[in-house]
Amino acid sequence: MSTVHQTAVAETSAPASGAQRATAGAQLIVLYSTPADLAAFDAYYSSTHAPLAKKLPGLRKYLVSNGGVTTPGADTPPHHLLAELHFDSIDALKAALASPEGAAAVADLPNFASAGVSISIVEVTDIL
To answer: What is the pLDDT of residue 19?
Structure first.
């Protein structure tokens, strides 16, 4: 059974040069632990889960990693896939998750993410 952890993170530091920084939107960051069967996970994700997630109302951009997601010094990637779903705001992201499409995507997680999944909601600020 998949375990879903949700963490809310917000940018709180002051602007680097005293200039006002504008919120650039919000992201849903999903990190999938490495499954026992990579091929089955990939097939299901691309044919079933990604099409469900693409239907989220207000979704502006949907990025996924290529290959395993590793950490410095790790011999084996502890995670298999990272997905970033971009929205205009935290409110838009929360509305998407509360929608029927959001409920369908969340309900689908146990069907393929048995190794575990971590979900974070992040408000982002453009500092460049």
So the answer is: 56
